[in-house]
Structures are given as structure tokens and as C-alpha cells.
Amino acid sequence: MKKVIYIDIGELGWSLYLSAHMRWLKENTDDHIGIMTFVDRHCLYNGIVNAIYDVPDDFHKKFRRGTESRFGLKGTSPDNLKKYFTERIPSGYEIGGFFGRHFNIRSKAIFEPYAYSKELNGRKEILVFPRHRIMGRPSLRNLSSKFYAKTIVALCKKYPDYIVRTMGIPSGAYSINGIERTNYVNDVREGMDLQEIIDRCQVAIATVGSQSAPPKLALLQGVPTFMIGHQRARHVGPDNWMSTKNEFYDVVKKHYGSIDTRDCIGKIISFIEECHHA
Asked: How many Å apart are CA 224 and CA 148, to the nearest integer?
């Protein structure tokens, strides 16, 4: 039996592909599969791989999070990443795949919803993922904090019986404060992890956000999702793995700031209304 370890340190959206590939390997090979990744991504591999390892302690000193690109890191060659991890993986393993942009696993992937860690009940919620990147090309896909604030207020007014909750971490999402609505919860904070988003999907009637990993994760969990972005065909088609109800609002690549706020919020409300009456 071969022991193969995969390294998940790239973009979060591509982690969803990688965990689906691990599920395919589990069902189609006899390999002993390991994964090395960040603590907050363990939930993507629980029950799928044979062993989960944290990235080495010195990873964060040698490399900077926020430079993720597909399965690797922008500015760091695949060869350098492979050399670093080859010297640090547990004994007996060989590294599977590689860290380039074209590690093609789409044809060998089994997508399924992730397991909940606990049962949630109570008021239904609308989840908002206020994506915000600080530097580089990913920042060109930022919508403004003002757009999200207006969206949140509109949702709170229209649906007073639902909680409107933002989710994310400060390094990747706006923390929207100053909204005085009793049904609004700002849950953007340090320590937020993917398992919390997965668990919260149990009580969500819908989610809203620009194209990024959290809305794709919500779709995978079966939650109707309104997504804003420039890659409609991909996100309503092959990347909507469970064929979940969704709506997509088109914006021009690199011109997210020019979005027609009133028109978009109107379409968000119409979409939520459909989910509300479903």
C-alpha cells in the first residue's frame, strides 16, 4: 500500500476540489492518504483521509498567507514549495500532485456536503459573506463595504423575522459595524473557521456574496445562494456541484466597484423572496 500525502496551502476555493479528489481516491484506490493543511481546513478532510497533519510551525515564518494562488503561493515556485514540504512530511509518505496552477483533478472528484459538527435550531438566517481582499489582483474583485451595508439593511427591513448574519475573518472580509438592527449579527471575527460556516448552513434559507469560497461552500451544503461576479458560466454550471438553487449577478471583471447597487439589491430581495416562499 502506497502512502501519499497532499498539501493544502493554496486558495480556499481550490481546497473544495482537493477534498473532493481525496474522496475519489478513498473510493477508487487502496492508497493510504494523508493531508497536510491549516487547522481551520481540517473539517474539509475529516472522515475522508487516513491522516490529517498541520502545516509545520515555521511555514508561517517562511511564507505569508494572503498570497494563495490555486494550489500554491503566488511568488513561490512549485519546486521550492515541494522541496520545503518534502523535508518536513512524516516519514514514509510521498507527496501527491504538485503546486502548479494546472493540477487537474476535476475529472477525479466526488463532491458531497460536509458533515455538521453539531445540530443548530432556532430562527432562520440569511448569511452574507462580505468578501474583502487587501492586496493584489484579488482586491480588484472587492465590492465596497457600503454596498454590503446597504444590502444588510435592506434584508433586515424586509425580513425582520430572520437573522441577517455576516461571516468571515477580518483578513478576508469586511466587519460591517454601525447597523442598528436587532436582527443583524456581525460575525466577522478572528478565529472564525469553516466548520462554523458549514454548521450555520443548517439554519440558513439563503446566502449572499461575491464569487469566492464561502458562497460555493454554501451551494455545496444545499443552501440557495445569490452570487455576484464575472464568471457566471462556471459558478452556475460546473462549480455548482449539487445543482443548488442559485442566482448570479454579472459585473465586469476588475470593475466590481461600478456595480449598480440599487438594481443588485433589488434582485437579491427578489431571490430571497423566492427562497422565503419555497
From this structure: 18
